[in-house]
Amino acid sequence: MTDHLVERVREALRVVIDPELGENIVDLGFIYDIAASGGAVRIKMTATTPGCPATSFLREGAQAAASAVPGVVSADVAMIFEPAWTPDLIASSIRASLGFAAVN
Question: Percent of the chain scored above 70 by pLDDT?
Answer without folding.
Answer: 95
